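Worked example 4.2. Below are the chains of a multi-component assembly; read each line carefully before continuing.
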Amino acid sequence: MKVLIDDKVHNYHSIWMEDEIIFAIDQRKLPFIFEIFEAKTLKDTCFAIKEMVVRGAPLIGVTTAYGLLQVSMTSKEVDIRKFISVIKNAMNKLSKTRPTAVDLFNAINRIEQVLDEKETVQQNQQKIKIEVEKIEEETLQEAKQIGEVGNAVIPENGVVMTICNAGALATIDYGTALAPIRKAHESKKNITVYVNETRPRMQGARLTAWELYNESIEHYIIADSAAGYYLSQKKIDVVIVGADRVTFNGDVANKIGTYTLSVLCKENNVPFYIALPHSTFDLNLEFGKDIIIEQRDGLEVQTAMSIDTIDDIEVKRRIIHFPESKNLNPAFDITPAQNVTGYITPSGIVKPSEIRKFLKK
Amino acid sequence: MKVLIDDKVHNYHSIWMEDEIIFAIDQRKLPFIFEIFEAKTLKDTCFAIKEMVVRGAPLIGVTTAYGLLQVSMTSKEVDIRKFISVIKNAMNKLSKTRPTAVDLFNAINRIEQVLDEKETVQQNQQKIKIEVEKIEEETLQEAKQIGEVGNAVIPENGVVMTICNAGALATIDYGTALAPIRKAHESKKNITVYVNETRPRMQGARLTAWELYNESIEHYIIADSAAGYYLSQKKIDVVIVGADRVTFNGDVANKIGTYTLSVLCKENNVPFYIALPHSTFDLNLEFGKDIIIEQRDGLEVQTAMSIDTIDDIEVKRRIIHFPESKNLNPAFDITPAQNVTGYITPSGIVKPSEIRKFLKK
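Applying the procedure described above to all two chains together yields the following structure tokens:
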């Protein structure tokens, strides 16, 4: 990911580790302020996920993996049972940060499977390190592959619509839904992106817009409620979004508003794609209706992160609703499999009718 | 309309005239600041409509009528041709303030029709006054009738969803879409209202929420993108919205996001009603596709009216998007007649299949 700060271009990952410290771009105040958050303890890591310093399903998975590696590396336990108990306690804490993104639980499961009471603490630490590096490597690799695969659904001079941020900031780099867009741009297709601002937290208008700007990809931000207008006007060739969890039957949990886009696409015959790595499939859940939908604080809807002027930047959440009213804030919704044209996966595009067969492999 | 200010309840209309001055609740800073705007000249009146001091199709119509009455009353012309030319010049200026609400043009047409070159200036002034008072009286009367008629579609313990503000603030009092809600509440139905916040200008979260609070009607504000979630969860019994213009075939121009709600209602078998006075029907246009959709300044999307804290109220439009990105801001969209369950009019509920017959009467 190239990032423009003070007119200089830097190359960044959204997250990385140095020794036992996790470094991550703080996504709460982006794009107004670019800051690196340092997580030195498990408490910091849990805070980072819960308070959305990091967000996006694949990145939540990687952060979880890094968090467990950090706990493993900093543990002073010499007794293997106690060591494993420390790791499992950390897993328990991490699992309670956010309920919807399955990548979090998939990362925990993968690391849980390498734990071995019959081996030494050092051997376990080494195994955890190897598994976390595999998760990291796969996340980077799969994002690139999603880009290659998904580029096929974007026409020359194509107009793509997306919601939320499924970009480099939602993975380690490159993105899921933004990966095909990046690849199309790299391959000189003259594309335009319509970015749903993505209330309440504005991940589209804050994060996706910022990424597209940094990549010099032509784009427009629209209010979420304007998506229907542009889809009905036949302005959009294809909608590509990310996912927080896809169940065995192909139902999709993703950012609130995704279901609405899928219904609008069906109504207007616009292809609707979900771009996701393998870690976002949930092989333990059959149907979307069984996914827990996170209800976040109504204050997130009542306020918006804002700045007064471009020059005088005091980034604050400020009140934009009538403050005496109650708010409801479901963070995700469920898009039924039959509304999906295809799943853009690292190993190819999968149709809803083929998803069970694909996942059983 | 009862209004709570400083813990006192007042009775207000959203607009009124005293002598030649037009007074209107300034809707730009509501609900954070309650101020009365005074329009003393045609320039003030045009400003009030264009800058959305007043908004809502029926209120735009009444403001236009008051504006013409003001010009008529303050004109010093004694020559009838010159007087009529002054009125027509005012009509021309008012017609350029906002393009979508047909009530504006219907008010102009009604007043244009009473002008008579064969009579004196004084006689013309008197006729304009009578016509404006008729418009005023009809607007008040029709809002009440819409309430009576529309109450029938709201069940006992009903949950109603709406978008934007089609309340007392969009008419002189009582409202269009909010009229059945007020009536249902008055008749002791235990109702709940889901209010779409209505980006970009937040008329739902600022104005409708404020009206419902003042009436002690239970309500929740949601992000526009959460409407699909609640409609798919079968939480909503009926959706009632207003209109800016309804064409001869029943197509509806209304606040951006209305079309999306209609598609979501169709998908989830939720009744979708348009509540409107007769002045919002456009008998000169056949199809919705011929309605001019107002594209407003992208700055409205890039910013949100906000306050820092409840105690320290500095109401300002502040930046909430990445400021380097471009924004698109269509203010309205078109809902095709076939997505509408019925039109709640002052003279009864009309089905889309009956709309031509109804309008030909």
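Take a moment to check your reading of the output against the notes. The radius of gyration of chain B is 20 Å. DSSP finds eleven helices and 18 strands in chain B.
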